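S., here's the first fold you wanted:
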Amino acid sequence: MPARENSKTTIAGAVGAFLDAVNGRNEDPHGNLRNLACALDRLSLAYHEGAELQHAPNAAQPPEQDVQDLREKISRRFPDLSGSTAPVTASSAADIADADAIDDLTSITSDLLDVAWCLENTSLEDATRLYRFGFSHTWGRHLCDLRSAVHFAMFGM
């Protein structure tokens, strides 16, 4: 699929929708899961539709986050995901043996808060670089595992 010209709209929209799903008004648990599922799908598409940057500048210095506080907020918002783990495959067992869906969601949220900070404070290039690097090296795998856990919580399969 060719890269779209307006990566900022794609990335900013996907990041914004995701952060809204995580931090937005509290709906019923099923509504929260539905919104999260859509936002996760959009994040994946934004990676594949966004422009690749070969040599993006690295001026980003996002502020530190209280990850434990973030995890607690997420646990309260998505109680159906607490203790939920993605199916473990032989190739990924070492990577996710002790992780659960809340850990995955916390990791993704933390990284995307940094991307949102870059969009507001540095540049599109920094945000795109951070988004693409994070997706391909850390949170993209968490997204796949989390999407599976969300599907299971929604449909029992």
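And the second, which I think is the more interesting of the pair:
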Amino acid sequence: MENRHTLFQTRHLIRVFPLLIALIAVILISLIGWLVGLLFLLMISIYLIIRLNPEVIFPFSIIMLSIGAQLPAEIGQLVSMTFSFIILIYWFFWRISTGFKLMPLDRTLTTFILFTIIWLIMSSLLSSHFTLGIYVTFRQIIFFLMIYIIYDWLRTKTQIRMMFNSFAIMGVILSMFILFGFAQAGFEVISIDQFIVPIRYTFFNINPNALGTNLLYSVPVVAAMLIYNLVDLKKPILILMFSITLGALFLTFSRASWLGVAVSLILILFTTKYGRWFLGVSFIISFLIGVVSEDLRNLLEILLRFEHGLSHRDILWKAAWEMFSENPVFGTGPWTYRYYMFSLSRVIPGSWSADVILGLKSAHNLYLTKAAEMGIGGIITSLGIYLIFAHRLIATFKTTSDPYFRGILFAFSAILAGSFARSMFEVSGFLFLWTTLIMVTRIGQINKGHNDSFSQVPPLPSLNNRVNS
């Protein structure tokens, strides 16, 4: 029988736990610095998790892995390695207790993963940066191992709920940091120096565009909780959570993330009658205000950074296309875009454009980046994950009658559309994309009655019997 009293399902978690952790982090970081503050935060979080419910280690570690991947190099590697190690160790000892009866991976996903790894190896062998290619391939194998562990762990609907709710919790925690920085800066939105530009808020030197990736998954989840009644929380609390996450997203001034979230929210609202009315009225009011008020139009141009245009993405796209044209089959090798981009961009060294694009690691377009680095195989893998996801969503919708899980599927459909829109301008967020795909796959398997083996797997070992009793 599923344990329905897990920490991530109760109202007390979303109401208290994120605020508690964020408050502790803010206090520690302001008093003793980022490095020591983060280490204390990790220890406190892990202790609370183990005391309250060890199973929460999985969704919590996924949150920390996603955050760690975007932190500056030294801290990011420390956080990512720590929580990767926690996941591997916990899963290993759990599997020892079950006699290593591994759950077979979905056939379609297995084929896709094997194709990706084989193509990475072939692209690396033919690349002038062979060592780098092998390193990237090894990292990708570790990534897929993590994906399999998540797949193996998501055995019940309760665990799916836990993982789904963790997206909202991640958004609230990150948003608290962003709003804290906003308050420290005196609530300034626009900087007036040589130019009038918006101030892009983040925390710990994380790229605002990368931070927007996390909120791309959090904001639609909170919106779905509010609209589809997916959690046992009062409306004012959910509205506050939505306002906090949406406000933090706005302060990142990541236009690609704005686009992705806008697409997601439009699709979520469009599924309800009142949502469609809200969209229609909002569009009419926005149009009238834009026509009547020139000051608001000017403010909108500043906030959307119209003067920056595509932020030199057109230069990056042309360079990526030339790389693909010269190496259409296997590309130049994994992670090699940075080595060829500058020479193919034809910008003048020392110019403003050169300073902007110097050191960039991708073409700010998922498909062109993969095409340049891996050729045709890169296009197949980058588009393939979205096609598999869309097909899996449609198939799962047909077999799902539970209103709660239909709400989750609506949320994931919106996230898929938003993520696809964002992938035209940014390259990140694969851990969340794969995690949501695994969740959809698991829901479909349970609906079809393919979860007999789930019930035969004993629960994760608990360090606190009172929780599971």
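Why I say that: The longest helix spans residues 366-399. The chain has one domain: 7-458.

Talk tomorrow,
H.
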